[in-house]
Specification:
Strand content: under 5%
Mean pLDDT: 76
Number of helices: 2
Radius of gyration: 30 Å
Structural class: mainly alpha
Largest sheet: none
């Protein structure tokens, strides 16, 4: 059997913790502070329809809220977009197929 050589170098660990990570994960590890809201930085391309663009701009409000507040914003935007879309069916004027409808 080979006995350990006191002068021999120890092999380095395969991976070392990153400098910003705590060195251990045990119960005595320092607690991390929760990160605050951070903008996602998602760009919204204007549609040219002011009502739709206003609704989409409202999505930016979620950037300043904790995750728990996102759902209310998303539901509000979704509801508004559905209302806008439904209102397109309510617009007065000729129906697109009405010109060629020559039924008697």
């Amino acid at each position: 059997m080979d006995e350990p050589n006191p002068g021999a170098e120890r092999p380095e660990p395969e991976t070392a913790p990153a400098p910003d990570e705590p060195p251990f994960d045990g119960p005595d590890a320092p607690a991390e502070e929760p990160a605050g809201p951070r903008p996602l930085g998602v760009a919204v391309t204007p549609t040219g329809h002011p009502e739709v663009d206003g609704r989409l701009a409202r999505l930016g409000d979620a950037d300043h809220l904790a995750v728990g507040g996102h759902l209310a914003v998303y539901e509000d935007v979704h509801r508004g977009l559905r209302t806008t879309l439904a209102s397109l069916d309510q617009q007065p004027g000729p129906r697109p197929g009405a010109q060629n409808d020559n039924r008697s």
